[in-house]
Amino acid sequence: MAIKLHGSWMSTATLRVGATLYEKGLDFELVPVDLSAHEHKQENFLSLNPFGQVPAFEDGDLKLFESRAITKYIAYKYKEQGTELVGANFSEMPIIGVWMEVEAHHFAGPSTKLVWELCIKPMIGIPVDETVVEEATGKLNGVLDVYEARLAKNKYLGGDEFSLADLHHLPNIRYILMTPKASLFTSHPHVSRWWSDISSRPAWTKAAALSDAAIPKQA
Known about the structure:
Elements: E1 3-7, H1 12-23, E2 28-32, H2 43-46, E3 56-59, E4 62-65, H3 67-77, H4 93-124, H5 130-151, H6 164-167, H7 170-176, H8 183-186, H9 189-198, H10 202-214
Parallel strand pairs: 1-2
Antiparallel strand pairs: 1-3, 3-4
């Protein structure tokens, strides 16, 4: 049975899973979910994700939700295919795991707020909350100071090889770089070098191109 990814290429979480599937060279079907029509809140979708958020994922009889859980499943289930994303040996795995947790608990919060305020709200005609923007900017800058020190000594967050610890950052950074807060990344030279590296990967450029096509064009 084919792998199915239910979501929208505009969604950062859908992009996270799509990029992982492309890194693994896996065939899959993108089942479009129209967020503007609230299809993710309808009964059919809620049977896949009871929280009504994209993406949802099917691999045969297995059904999953939560993008980071899905990417980890893909990385372990298809470990022998495509890019190694969780470490080739036990000494690498725990370090990669630490930086995956850093992304989820330190980076995701403020970066997601900036994506919502500076990218999504203007798209749907909701005023930006500048107080939220400035608070999130300060928090994210502090996180990136830590990343700058880490990346001064390591090519990737998890060590010498690209992994899920890096991949999980791609969608939110992509959106923030479209905003006036792009300087958060460009002002950190090692972070900027890291971004140039990970964002040039063929799997990501393929996923990002699909996202570009899905974003409504401004009149």
